[in-house]
Amino acid sequence: MPSVVLIAVFVYGFIGDTIYISLTDWGRGAALALDPQINYIGFENYTELFTGFIDGRFRQDMVNAMFYSVLLLAGAIGLGLFIAVLLDRKPAGEAVLRTIFLYPMALSFIVSGTIWRWLLAPQGGVNVLPTYFGFDRLQFTWLTSKQTVLQFNWQNLLPLLLCIMAAVLVLSGFGCLRSRPRRAAWFMGCGALLGLFVAVAGSSLPQALFMEETHGFNLATTGIIIATVWQYSGYTMALYLAGLHGISQDLADAAQLDGASQFAYYRHVAIPMLRPITISAIIILSHISLKMFDLIFAMTGPDNGATGHPALLMYLTTFRANDFAKGAAIAVVLFLLAAMFIIPYLVSSYRRKRRGY
Amino acid sequence: MHRTFSPARVLLYAVLFLLAAAYITPAYMALITALKHPAEISLTTAWELPATANWNSFAEAARKLGPNFMNSIILTVCATIGSTVLGSLNGYVFSKWKFKGSEVVFTLFLFGMFIPYQIILIPLFQLLRDMNLYGGLPGLILAHVVYGLPITTLIFRNFYSQIPTTLVESAQLDGAGFFSIYRHIIFPLSIPGFVVTSLWQCTQVWNEFLWGICLTKHTSAPMTVGLAQLAGGQAVSWNLPMAGSAIAALPVLMMYILLGRYFIRGLLAGSVKE
Predict the structure, then answer these.
(1) Site from B90, B115, B133, B229 to mutate, A interface, most A CB atoms within 10 angstroms
(2) Distance from first CA to last CA of chain A, Å, rounded?
(3) Domains defined along chain B, listed by start
(4) B103-141 b/e (C-beta count within 10 Å ≥ 16 → b)
(5) Measured between alpha carbons, how far is residue A230 from residues A8, B26, B118, B255 in Å?
(6) Distance in angstroms (rounded) separating the CA atoms of residues B108 and B175
(7) Nearest by Cα to A27 from A302, A334, A303, A316
(8) Which residues 99-128 of chain A have a CB within 8 Å of chain B?
(9) Which of A29, A119, A187, A323 has the smallest CB count inside 10 Å?
């Protein structure tokens, strides 16, 4: 089959090639020469990105991307599920409403970005809306805000990451406390140990950077998050709605006979059954948020540092600055982040299929 | 059916109405701004309807984006045909001609759907440049066909697994080969599959931006790139970008509204497997 060869070359071959490029110094010299001088330099590009003096923008972009992913996931999944539950109550005109909630999905990010840029203009758009109801105009600058909240020092990256890991372990321990006490104890023990380790030895851990450099959540990203949630909550809604329709009516009737209120039905019966859908929504949305490029390009332009994203920086580094090797290194970082989500998902769905036979 | 007017029901409609209004807002804003006279656009009255409908912005945007529009049409049609036909053949193999390890190959195939395309951008750029395809439409079409394969293969595979395998087996006993089974049995049954996949591919290719801006030169840039340029300047009057957005959105929106049912199926196929 020729297409297997095509995929092998265009996906796997190219990924390998990009990884190789990221380990070279292609782009320092005459990058666009037909036969450029390329030398192998190991992981220098990566150490520069994470700990080098000039690549502060990459680090801020990584922080942006992280906040962006988390908030997009929370927003799109929360809102999508909420709308799906509302539509599952079978209101009149359900089909029309569904079309309205889903149409943003069909638009290009460039189209929606252009429109949202106008909607979120500092002196107009959404900000003047309250004046129609007699309130004052909002002053928030959605896309150009220079404010940053939740700041932290990049020097403390390592202890911070360990703290987050410890917190996740403890929390997931709490999560399965009732169903699997043994595993819960294991998780919480590890988390507590890790936390203790950071508390005791945190200050002696190697610092990621030789100088202080603070990063945080840039408020200008809010506008981009709102636009993305607008565009993708319809998608999660469609997923959840299909899931809710798949639950048999008998189950809903049985719950009702048992005296469950509608709220209790969703809380205890329907939503737990939608878990596989939540997982695939997380996979798809996180992969979208990691490659977010077009929307930011259209909303704040490629050169706005405050709303930057590694995917955008990769484009700028590669095609504007012609630093191919460093662009490749950024791409590899993005790829590894995405792979963290996708590979377990594909492996588990492959296993499930195998068991199906 | 008897409908009760309980307070909960009223609340449900109120919330749904507000949400729907919020979702429509951007489209409303784009349309009224596009219809306004440039002098009429001001930030404080942005929400009000235009005094008179002024279609000139649409004409001018169409004139400016015309070449890009044509590029996008050629690109979308070619890439969609290429990737759906190949995807259909692949789906046929993965569902009816299973070989040892075909599930592994299929899973490896699907992986291509989820990669951030930045990871393949530089080698793709190199390859197209070496093949002398960089900058033009054929290179872009090739990229879209290849990277469209995972999703089209997935949709067709799921679609074909509903066709009973006994049908293929009995045709095999009658001496029909790989292609004649495809031509006489599978293909005639595939029309809905083709609608779903090509609709999905059309919207994807039409809306794509990253490759458009990285792999094409000015004259063969697709619609999204043209629109980004039209909207990109700082002191633009907003009527033009809005009209351009409307033009760029129109083809996919039309398809979506007319064939929404199939669109949702493609959407679901991309995530919920089996």
Answers:
(1) B115
(2) 25
(3) 1-54 (no CATH), 57-269 (1.10.3720.10)
(4) eebbbbbbbbbbbbbbbbbbbbbebbeeeebbbbbbbbb
(5) 36, 10, 24, 20
(6) 32
(7) A316
(8) 99-112, 114-119, 121, 123-125, 128
(9) A29
Query: Is A89–B12 a contact, with Cβ atoms under 8 angstroms apart?
Result: yes
Segment 59-98 of chain B within 8 Å of chain A by CB: 86, 89-90, 93
Residues of B in contact with A314 (CB under 8 A): 118, 121
Q: CB-based contact (8 Å) between A285 and chain B?
A: no
State whether A7 and B210 contact (CB < 8 Å).
Answer: no
Cα separation of B115 and B113, whole Å?
Answer: 6
Sheet strands (E) in A13-138: none
Q: Give the C-alpha separation, B53 to A266, whole Å.
A: 47
Interchain contact, A102 vs B264, CB within 8 Å: yes
Which residue among B24, B46, B264 sits closest to A124, beta carbon to beta carbon? Answer: B46
What chain A holds in terms of domains, given with CATH numbers, is 61-147+219-356 (1.10.3720.10)
The answer to whether A281 faces chain B, any CB pair under 8 Å, is yes
Amino acid identity of residue B91, one-letter, is G
Question: Closest Cα to residue A104, out of A241, A226, A217?
Answer: A226
Q: Give percent helix, percent strand, percent coil of chain B, each to the nearest 5.
A: 75, 0, 25
Print pLDDT tens along chain A (357 aa).
667 777 777 778 888 878 877 777 776 655 555 566 677 777 777 877 777 777 777 888 888 888 888 889 998 999 988 888 888 877 788 888 888 888 888 888 888 888 888 888 776 677 777 667 766 666 666 666 666 666 677 666 777 777 777 777 777 777 776 677 777 777 778 778 877 777 777 666 666 666 667 777 777 788 888 888 998 888 888 888 888 887 777 777 787 777 777 777 777 777 788 888 888 888 888 888 888 888 888 887 777 767 778 888 888 888 877 788 888 888 888 888 888 888 888 888 777 766 654
Quote the CA–CA distance of A140 and B169 in Å, as a whole number. Answer: 66
Cα A181 to Cα A139: distance, rounded to the nearest angstrom: 50
